Known about the structure:
Oligomer: single chain
Shape: globular
Radius of gyration: 19 Å
CATH class: Alpha Beta
CATH superfamily: Alpha/Beta hydrolase fold, catalytic domain
Amino acid sequence: MKIKVSILIVLLVVISCSSPSGKKSIIVDNTERTYTLHLPKSFDSQQRYPLVIVLHGRGGDSQRMEDVSGMSQKADKEGFIVVYPEGLEILRGRRSWNANFCCGEAYVKKINDVQFISTLIDTIAEEYNIDEKRVYVTGISNGGRMTYELAASLPLKIAAAAPIAANVGRNDSRGATETITIPSAPVPLLIFHGKEDPVTPYEGGPSEEDPTILEFSVDDSLQFWKEVNGCSGSEIITFGNIQVEGFKNCDAEIILYTINNGGHTWPGSSARFTKESGFVSNEISATDLMWEFFKRHPKS
Length: 300
């Protein structure tokens, strides 16, 4: 009887370890990097699927990001693969991403997170039948800044991006400007930002980490990308507490959703990002809107 029980336990362990969805790891730069993979319930290895990369904020992790974004439920409904990568936990409980101008220990230690995500895309492409013309990225806060960085650094891999509660640069205490990598090609962008964001202020200003550092505003970040994407002019529509600004004559589309009463949060989420993050608007669903945006923007 004991032998049968032991065999059953071993089989369960093997099955759980070989499960296509769940927590996984790869080695990049001689370092173990972790991520959570979610395959849609209808997954068929003979079909090709889009891939959506979802990035947590500083101090977050893949499980929390899966809860906040609701992207796995969207993937089951619409039929795409989701991956939730994790920043390195250099300080206990403080995972972060190096977005070229911030954040946390990943920035201080100059961790090559772009290489990690690039390698992760290649790994998933080898293991699963993804459509490499439909690889998308989104994230919030530090993860939103990393979303901007990946769009700038990997335009041949990233078809479109949707940063939330993020910016592209700052002016340090010496007055020097630091930004994400200068993009080499236009990338379609769908941007969400709350006007009452207490962490990444909509109008810019002193950094939460260091008040001598001045964060770029939403407009600064827009100007940065409008030049890259070749946009001129815009149209604005307003409903409730939502303002939608679409830019014209772009080589790659840019749309900004401003949530007038929104905080440092994921619009439409049933889970608050942090206790101090402010109001979560349910007038729109960032997850639903970005998926519709992504579907319009495969790589040519």
